[in-house]
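Sample intake sheet
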Amino acid sequence: MSDVKLKYSELDLQEFKEIINKKIARAKEDLDLLERAYKNNSDNGTDDTSPSFKSFDEGSEVMNKESNVQLAIRQEKFIRDLKNALIRIENKTYGVCRVTGKLIQKERLKLVPHATLSIDAKRAQ
């Protein structure tokens, strides 16, 4: 019988849960900032600037909004992935590679707590 662990201990899972909850809180703050940035239509007083810069200004403003919307979408996916990781903790399946069935390294999960693949499985993709 090998001494390879098949799942993380309750103590480990609690530690991961705390890491994930902190990341979710931070990610929600970041998402809120992004949403306020692209929903905020108040300009910074460019009405009195030269009209020749107006169209350039509006173009860069549209690009900024599109960029912020893309970042917000990515942030929402990140939050969803983190919440899914919390579900896996509750189900006691957290930290198990979905390809190999082996435990994902603790160091990897601390850095990427929503990971579902071990480094080996990720490289094989």
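Comment: Helices lie at 10-39, 54-90, 106-111, 119-124. The first helix runs from residue 10 to 39.
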